From TrEMBL, chain A:
NCBIfam families in UniProt: FtsE
Protein name: Cell division ATP-binding protein FtsE
Matching SMART domains: AAA
Keyword annotations: ATP-binding, Cell cycle, Cell division, Cell membrane, Membrane, Nucleotide-binding
SUPFAM superfamilies: P-loop containing nucleoside triphosphate hydrolases
Protein species of origin: Geomicrobium sediminis
An example Gene Ontology molecular-function term: ATP binding
Family classification: Belongs to the ABC transporter superfamily.
Gene3D superfamilies per UniProt: P-loop containing nucleotide triphosphate hydrolases
Domain of life: Bacteria
Signal peptide (residue range): none
Listed PANTHER family: CELL DIVISION ATP-BINDING PROTEIN FTSE, IMPORT ATP-BINDING PROTEIN
From TrEMBL, chain B:
Residues that span the membrane, as ranges: 27-48, 173-199, 220-247, 267-286
Protein's name according to its UniProt entry: Cell division protein FtsX
Function: Part of the ABC transporter FtsEX involved in asymmetric cellular division facilitating the initiation of sporulation.
GO BP annotations listed: cell division
Organism listed in the record: Geomicrobium sediminis
Family statement: Belongs to the ABC-4 integral membrane protein family. FtsX subfamily.
UniProt KW keywords: Cell cycle, Cell division, Cell membrane, Membrane, Transmembrane, Transmembrane helix
ABC3 transporter permease C-terminal domain residues: 178-287
Xref: InterPro entries: ABC3_permease_C, FtsX, FtsX_ECD, FtsX_firmicutes-type
Topology of the protein relative to the lipid bilayer: Multi-pass membrane protein
Keyword Transmembrane found: yes
Location of the protein in the cell: Cell membrane
NCBIfam families named in the record: FtsX_Gpos (NF038347)
Pfam family, one: FtsX
Length: 228, 297
């Protein structure tokens, strides 16, 4: 499903974020990506949605080589991958409903379907009652849920979450994890970058540790392995 | 790929909503459009009327060709016919010495009556009043008429005519240059203001792209929004100029009868239409140019 071979990424300023990264993730997996700050986790995510191009190496998603994608094909790749961004990336002037509906408008979904799907996905993240709220009126945890709802409303095969529990109180973090598990149980592959050792060590999944732009550890049911 | 109708409806709706969502920025853009169009429009009216004034002055230029006293009627007739058939002559009127005296006396007002006793011994000449097709041809026509042996002399204000045409030509060129300059300036200012409103929405565009929107999907609502800013921004100055000019026209018509402005209809509609079109195009242009910069995500 997701394959990276010898991927290198050097930024124009000379910083080498990824340095020969090899990864293979199968359909339906739930994977934590851990590592110290600056290890290359965010670069890894940006490469998967073609926000960045690798300097070298091969990236395949669902059998498509991202290096072969033209600029015009990128939007279609992104529609197959739901992303929960660390900073949420919600439209601040739009309501909760409009934020999620946008992902469906993009794929030219039927208006009646949009309504049904948005309400369904709000139900999953437990925020059905806040559909008409403006996103600026929401708490951090609620914004995180809306970001998740938007990422999954298209029923993407892959959900990538960058620090989805960052800046959240433990209780909220756990309920977010519950939501992600539920989504994973429906067959969605989940790749989650995190610093939350408690979650990684409690809710055991495959752990890929990145350091200095390389995979240094990859174990099923592994632990966080860093000082929290 | 053809856009589906529901998507088109969605883009239109978003375009409208965005004006409201970005209230102050939209207001700023529309104000910039309104102010610039007001200046351009007012200037356009000024130029059109200046041209009209120049035309009026130039068309008043006439040649008076005086016959020799001893020329008989048939000879005068043949000269008249020859002048009439000249390519550069618009209009010829024959005015005999009696009429000439009437015109002269009239021009003297109430004092003119004292000249009535001159009628028996009228010293004036029979004359031809000639207008050239192109006022700028006046001097050439006058020369040719003067060459006729039956003509004693011609008068066409030669001393000031050259200066008049120099001045009017300069005014025309200057006016044209100013209009073009002003239009460029306002196009630049308006599209820059619109750019600023979109600059503040860089993040929004970035998010759209990351969620999987195609470039055209992002662009379209901005297209509508730009067109609307142009349209709404143009309405106020157009309404103001139309009312203002109509009022000024009728005021001048009543108060200054010797010089009339250009009739409002259809000139005012032509200028308004042009302003509206330019405004909408600049709105679209400004919004599309600025969105383009942020699409590379």
């Amino acid at each position: 499903m997701i394959t990276m071979k010898r991927v290198r990424k050097t930024y124009p300023n000379g910083v080498q974020a990824l340095n020969g990264m090899n990864i293979h993730i199968d359909k339906g997996e739930f994977v934590y990506v851990v590592g110290p700050s600056g290890a290359g986790k965010t670069t890894f995510i940006k490469l998967m949605i073609r926000e960045l191009k690798p300097s070298e190496g091969l990236i395949q998603i669902n059998g498509n080589n991202l290096g072969d994608l033209s600029d015009k094909q990128i939007p279609y790749l992104r529609r197959k991958i739901g992303v929960v961004f660390q900073d949420f990336k919600l439209f601040t002037k739009l309501s909760v409903y409009e934020n999620i509906a946008f992902a469906l408008e993009v794929i030219e979904e039927e208006p009646e379907q949009i309504k049904t799907k948005v309400m369904d996905v709000l139900d999953i993240v437990g925020l059905k009652s806040k559909a008409r709220f403006n996103t600026s009126e929401l708490s951090g945890g609620e914004k995180q849920r809306i970001a998740i709802a938007r990422a999954i409303v298209n029923q993407p095969a892959i959900l990538i979450a960058d620090e989805p529990t960052g800046n959240l109180d433990p209780e909220t973090a756990w309920s977010i994890m519950g939501t992600l598990e539920e989504i994973n149980n429906r067959g969605t592959t989940i790749v989650m970058a995190t610093h939350n050792s408690h979650i990684v060590n409690t809710l055991k999944k495959r752990v890929i540790a990145i350091e200095n732009g390389k995979v240094v550890r990859d174990e099923l049911g592994g632990s966080y392995g860093y000082q929290a | 790929m053809a856009i589906k109708r529901k998507t088109l409806t969605r883009h239109g709706r978003e375009g409208f909503k965005n004006i409201r969502r970005n209230g102050w920025m939209s207001f700023a853009s529309m104000s910039a459009v309104a102010i610039m169009l007001f200046v351009v429009g007012a200037f356009a009216f000024l130029i059109v009327n200046t041209n009209h004034l120049i035309d009026t002055i130039e068309n008043d230029v006439e040649i008076r060709a005086f016959f020799e006293h001893d020329v008989d009627a048939s000879e005068q007739e043949s000269v008249l016919e020859e002048v009439e058939s000249h390519d550069s002559v618009e209009n010829v009127v024959y005015r005999d010495r009696d009429e000439g005296l009437d015109v002269f006396m009239e021009s003297m007002g109430s004092d003119g009556e004292v000249f009535e006793n001159l009628r028996e011994e009228n010293p004036l000449n029979d004359a031809l009043i000639i207008q050239a097709t192109d006022p700028q041809m006046t001097a050439a026509v006058a020369e040719e008429v003067n060459a006729q042996s039956a003509i004693e002399s011609v008068e066409y204000g030669e001393s000031i005519l050259g200066q008049l045409f120099t001045v009017t030509n300069y005014v025309r060129i200057l006016g044209g240059a100013l209009v073009i300059g002003l239009i460029f300036t306002s196009v630049f200012l308006i599209s820059n203001t619109i750019k600023l409103t979109i600059l503040s929405r860089k993040d929004e565009i970035q998010i759209m792209k990351l969620v999987g929107a195609t470039n055209s999907f992002v662009r379209f609502p901005f297209f509508i929004e730009g067109a609307l800013i142009g349209l709404i921004g143009a309405i106020i100055p157009i309404a103001g100029l139309t009312v203002g000019y109509s009022y000024l026209y009728s005021f001048m018509y009543d108060q200054v009868p010797f010089f009339t402005f250009v009739e409002p209809n259809p000139m005012i509609w032509q200028i308004s239409g042009l302003l509206l079109l330019v405004s909408i195009l600049v709105g679209i242009f400004g919004s599309q140019m600025s969105v383009r910069k942020f699409l590379k995500v």
